[in-house]
Amino acid sequence: MKTSESIKQLSAALLKAQRSITFASKDAKNPHFKSTYADLPAVIDAIKPALNDAGIAFLQTFSPSEAGFIAVTTRLMHETGEWIEDTATVPLPKSDPQGYGSAATYARRYSLAAITGLYQDDDDGNAASNTKPAQIAKVTAKQAADLQALADEVGADVAAFLGYVSTQLRTDIKKWSDIPATSFDDCVSALNKKRKAA
Is there a single domain that holds both residue 121 and residue 148? Predict the structure, then answer.
């Protein structure tokens, strides 16, 4: 979490706001899991009046993130200029506008609830936690072969390079075929940089 140099007055204001914040109503339905949950408007309705009455506003913006993920930064700002913020990163269910929108909404509502201390009895989240994570498309066999050929050409240490990719993507990459399709171009660029460095 990041903060302004002082958060003394913001802390007092946040305490005042939290005395009024209770819970968000579960008014949205997830037909896939046959469950209900507090959607983003319900979360905002639950926290905004109390925050504003205490002199606090919130902002949510998109931050740079790795391929296959979306990052949302949530900031609470007090009328004195004091602030606190943190960034949540969530995987994209799919790399298209609907996937980005869904992940962004999910990240926004969970981030707002977390930073304000809002209680959510979230059947939607509970059901989702018991399912397998969304499958992210991997590179094709030809792309994997192309990466191997490029690595051979530039004299790259494959194990070290895959370890680097694992760190960047925060996932376990053991072989070329484990690399997400959305990261193929980034891997090609990284390998080509090794060519230039050599």
Answer: no
Portion of the chain with pLDDT greater than 70, in percent? 83
User: What is the chain's percent helix, strand, coil content, to nearest 5?
Assistant: 50, 20, 30
Q: What SS3 class is residue 27?
A: coil
What domain range includes position 68? 2-129
Let me know how long the chain is: 198
Same domain for 95 and 18 = yes
Residue 53 shares a structural domain with residue 151: no
45-56: average pLDDT: 94
Closest C-alpha among 85, 132, 124 to residue 102: 124
| Order of strands across the sheet that contains 69-78 | 2-3, 83-91, 69-78, 56-63
Helix (H, G, I), strand (E, B) or coil at 21: coil
All residues at 6 or more sequence positions from 49 whose CB lies less than 8 Å from its CB, including other chains: 20
- The tens digit of pLDDT for each residue in 56-68 reads 999 999 988 888 8
Same domain, 15 and 108: yes
Residues 103, 28, single domain; the answer is yes
